[in-house]
């Protein structure tokens, strides 16, 4: 038996009448076609009581609800999950996501996985690394003028305060305290996002001696780590927990001239122009399209780039240059591409894409 928490007609009437004249940033909480359905006993997560704030199952559950709730957008239409879909590794299946006014984002939605602890340890977030902590990152898309459109952090808290089921959820998460603040909202969403980890791939099972790779997968692994040295940039491929702490930014020669300066726009350093965060390759099979601008629709196109499409960018990484100082021409054969993709597919973790603990808590009426 599940406890169904939903907006009744009475509460909807009060909300719609009482807040009809509110400004956009605080917004009218419109009638929802969804209702909240949570188990009587919270799902078990990797809860840690000795951290600050305590990452209890109730706090993570609150974060799950907030992550999927469209009330957090100016138009009541977009949630964090709109651009980070569980079925495809918490990424988006389009080059640029659509925000609350149907406008397109400037970059591809980077997958949310293995972001690591948000407790006092810096990581590298967004393609340009402009945020270092999950708690400071998670509200940025909500206040972004294209993505979710809320004016500021206070407007987020005001909006959440107007949704009837939240006081009870906050009270459970915060030892009876029903007060709703932007800080608590950030802590909850960050707690949930920090739980999204991929550690159950075929490659993980291979590394622990629980399974074997096929001949084609083994060939691809050897090409990846030896002949083409892909692992020199993608260390997080082999270490699940390392994915969120990876801080390398490189220029891989996508363009000779930069329309998007990437890391350089944050640091102001010319040497950083055209550099972007090196992403984890876990669940890469599911997270197309690829690169910061989603320019490559398939892994074959990605390998084609490294094979013969590296541009002679001024800041091209030295690992992608030949002895003559020019871009490498790897000339990856079709057979090698097939083997490399077979290996990359061993990095898929289907458990995270199907785990109900990370699915939407809302159901259609």
Question: Can you give a write-up of this model?
Answer:
- The structure is a single chain.
- With about 375 residues, the protein is mainly alpha-helical.
- The protein folds into two domains: about 1-195 and about 355-365, Cytochrome c-like domain (Cytochrome Bc1 Complex, Chain D, domain 2); about 200-350, Cytochrome Bc1 Complex, Chain D, domain 2.
- The protein contains 14 helices and five strands.
- It has helices spanning about 10-20, 55-70, 80-85, 135, 140-145, 155-160, 165-175, 180-195, 200-205, 215-225, 265, 300-310, 335-345, 350-355, and strands spanning about 1-5, 35-40, 250, 275, 360-365.
- The strands form two sheets. A three-stranded antiparallel β-sheet has the order 1-2-5, with no helix packed on it. Strands 3-4 form a two-stranded antiparallel sheet.
- α2 packs antiparallel against α7 and α10 (about 215-225) crosses α13 (about 335-345).
- The longest helix is centred in the middle third of the chain and has 13 residues, at about 215-225.
- The model is unreliable at about 1-30 and about 240-245 (pLDDT under 50).
């Amino acid at each position: 038996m599940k406890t169904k928490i939903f907006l009744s007609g009475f509460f909807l009437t009060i909300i719609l009448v009482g807040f009809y004249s509110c400004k956009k940033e605080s917004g009218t909480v419109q009638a929802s076609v969804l209702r909240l359905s949570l188990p009587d006993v919270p799902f078990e997560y990797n809860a840690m009581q000795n951290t600050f704030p305590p990452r209890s199952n109730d706090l993570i559950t609150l974060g799950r609800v907030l992550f999927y709730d469209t009330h957090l957008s100016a138009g009541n239409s977009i949630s964090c999950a709109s651009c980070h879909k569980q079925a495809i590794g918490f990424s988006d299946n389009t080059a640029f996501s659509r925000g609350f006014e149907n406008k397109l984002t400037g970059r591809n939605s980077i997958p949310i996985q293995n972001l690591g602890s948000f407790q006092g340890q810096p990581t590298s977030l967004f393609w340009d690394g402009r945020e270092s902590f999950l708690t400071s990152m998670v509200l940025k898309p909500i206040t972004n003028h294209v993505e979710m459109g809320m004016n500021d952090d206070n407007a987020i808290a005001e909006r959440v305060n107007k949704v009837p089921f939240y006081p009870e959820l906050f009270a459970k998460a915060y030892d009876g305290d029903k007060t709703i603040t932007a800080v608590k909202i950030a802590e909850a969403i960050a707690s949930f996002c920090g739980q999204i980890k991929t550690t159950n791939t075929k490659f993980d099972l291979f590394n622990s001696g629980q399974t074997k790779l096929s001949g084609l997968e083994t060939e691809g692994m050897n090409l990846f780590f030896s002949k083409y040295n892909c692992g020199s940039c993608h260390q997080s491929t082999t270490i699940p927990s390392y994915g969120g702490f990876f801080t390398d930014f490189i220029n891989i020669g996508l363009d000779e001239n930069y329309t998007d300066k990437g890391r350089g726009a944050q640091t102001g350093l010319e040497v950083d122009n055209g550099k972007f965060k090196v992403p984890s390759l876990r669940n890469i099979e599911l997270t197309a399209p690829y690169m910061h601008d989603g320019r490559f629709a398939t892994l074959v196109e990605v390998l084609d780039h490294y094979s013969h499409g590296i541009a002679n960018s001024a800041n091209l990484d030295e690992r992608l240059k030949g002895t003559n100082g020019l871009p490498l021409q790897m000339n990856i054969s079709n057979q090698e591409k097939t083997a490399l993709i077979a290996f990359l597919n061993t990095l898929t973790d289907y458990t995270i894409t199907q785990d109900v603990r990370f699915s939407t808590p809302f159901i259609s009426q």
